[in-house]
Amino acid sequence: MKKQLFSIVVPMYNEQDVIHELYIRLKSILNNIDNDIGVNHEIIFVNDGSTDNTEKIAREICLNDAAVKLINFAGNFGHQIAVTAGLDYAKGDAIIIMDADLQDPPELITQMIEKYNQGYHVVYAVRKRRKGETIFKKITAKLFYRLLSLMTNIEIPLDTGDFRLISKEVCCILKIMKEKNRFIRGLVSWIGFKQTGIDYIRNERLAGKTKYSISKMIKLSLDGIVSFSTKPLKLSTFLGFGMSFFAFLYIVYAIIIKFAFNKSEPGWTSLTVLILLIGGVQMIMLGIVGEYISRIYDESKNRPLYIIKDDINIEHIEKRCYSRCSE
Asked: Is this model's pTM higher than 0.85 or not?
């Protein structure tokens, strides 16, 4: 019987301080799994335009271990795109996506594979507690997942990131989905199949700083909401009708005061407040519409998702070209 192959996809950006420890822990776990249940593995590092020694260290590991593969981007294309590239070239029967910072414990891979062998196509990790993160980060993350659940038309599990196992069938479907502004955990939920979660405690970063700034977090949030819901557009419509209704009531009120009581509203304060309120609502609505239009614009340009500079141990890949699997 042919051995199962498991692929580990690890996007990296300036992770020179953690690569060796990540590699050691991954190999220890994967070798144990290989010996216990008789499987093979590959580790795919995707270097997302790092400016430190990440590429150099990853190259050294690849040259000493043929099971480790490296895809080097020509520039920084973003975390979700780096994950996409890894999925494009993963050959496993199942693929595990995880970050390089070791906040997501590699030891959870064993439980994920057990669930996969029970018939699940997606096994996602649910963060029950977050170590080493600020109160602001914890609160905003909790609010984001609940807002996303409220706004989107699909059921995305609460408090989950991209740390998950997906089957080859799910991966193949992801490969043919062409969105430029990608929200992978949402895409996986949309695909369906049998899915389950595993609870875990998220660790502190082993070293370095988080690469997700507030602006990147906001962009990811917008990608999640805009990609999977038209509710913001409908909300804009309701706000427009609501403001028009209240403006109409105010006009009626002003007419009654003028002709029934021969009085008029003194000063310009109320008028100024109304103008500012209506103007603010209009700008918000234009901004929401603009977010949708900007994504239509991105899709219409039809640029490649990423450019590959070079690779190590990757088979059937054309050097110095962009790639999206077309199989």
From this structure: no
